[in-house]
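Researcher: Final request for today, and then I'll write up notes for the group meeting. The sequence and the SMILES for pyridoxal-5'-phosphate follow.
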Amino acid sequence: MAIDINALVRPNIRDMQSYSSARSEFSGSADVYLDANENPFGSPTGTGFNRYPDPYSDRLKRELAKIKNVPPHQIFIGNGSDEAIDLLFRVFCIPRNDQAIVCPPTYGMYTVSAAINDVGVIEVPLSADFQIDTRAVISSFSSRTKLVFFCSPNNPTGNLMDRGAITEIAKVFDGLVVLDEAYIDFAERPSSIELIAEFPNIIVLQTFSKAWGMAGNRIGTAFAGSKIIDVMNKVKPPYNISSHAQEAAIEALDHESVVREWIDRTLSERARLSRELVKFDLVETVFPSDANFLLVKLNDAQTTYNFLLDRGIVVRDRSGVELCDGCLRITVGTTEENTRLLCILKDLDETVFKKSACKPE
Ligand SMILES: *Cc1c(COP(=O)(O)O)cnc(C)c1O
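Model: Predicted protein-pyridoxal-5'-phosphate complex:
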């Protein structure tokens, strides 16, 4: 498909000069650095923070490239995936004119980011089985539609989206398809990252925040054709990733085996939680999950939420969300945490639900 990325970029972004930082004008090595107005004595913590970080996180990209099988120039590093989402709006959507499509129930940041950027959102709800309504998405395209967001596995429903639906839509769409794979490490099916080689309009988002255990470090990644990556780099703040965050992420990549082990434990705990939860009378449905959380439909979500909270366990109340009526989203914890959760729910099940159901006063 011949899609012209340049033509999709907002004219003001296409025409502007990007900020040229000291560290991007000179990126070699020298004995003496007098170009960036840094403190030459050091940082008070003695950790070398007096120097500006690498503006493009090149070393991290080279390491990621090996693992992801994507060349470095097709990788964008953001201050969390949320920065990448925001940049896509700023680069491609003209405020008050262009639109994005989201498929609720899904991750709330797509709509929040659209609102911040004054970009309209068209909601095309998932079907009752939480899948993309391909026909409805395609029929809501207009010349103003620039972005479509899919989340797979989806937050908060936990399921993978049908890959055929995503590629079918990408094939006919003149804008960009954003595929958020924040939870892909927990999924049965591997990442769809290789789609970026075939589809110049697909952007895959991943993050260090979930399986990689680095939520506090704030690193998100976008994988796409180099024209998309280049224009995201043009608009991002010059030093968006701190030197500490870059180093910590590179170090994390050396510990892939422990991450694999945590994923395995999460999957077996997810299966156990799911098996045990369905036994309770208070649980109506435990939806199948390809993520590190379970969406659980209860016959009284509010009571259950408060009961857990009173006993020190906080879960996410999703009962007000489209198609998630009566649902709580429960992150899979450690074995001990999950056992504690099950224990408390058993208590609630026996004291409130079973008794009132079986032994009316
Ligand atoms: C948690 C999450 C992210 C991660 O966001 P970061 O900014 O990278 O921490 C992205 N997308 C979805 C759907 C998520 O649930």
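Model: Residues 80-82, 107, 151, 155, 180, 182, 207, 209-210, 215, 220 surround pyridoxal-5'-phosphate (CB under 6 Å). The chain has a mean pLDDT of 95.
Researcher: Thanks, that's everything.
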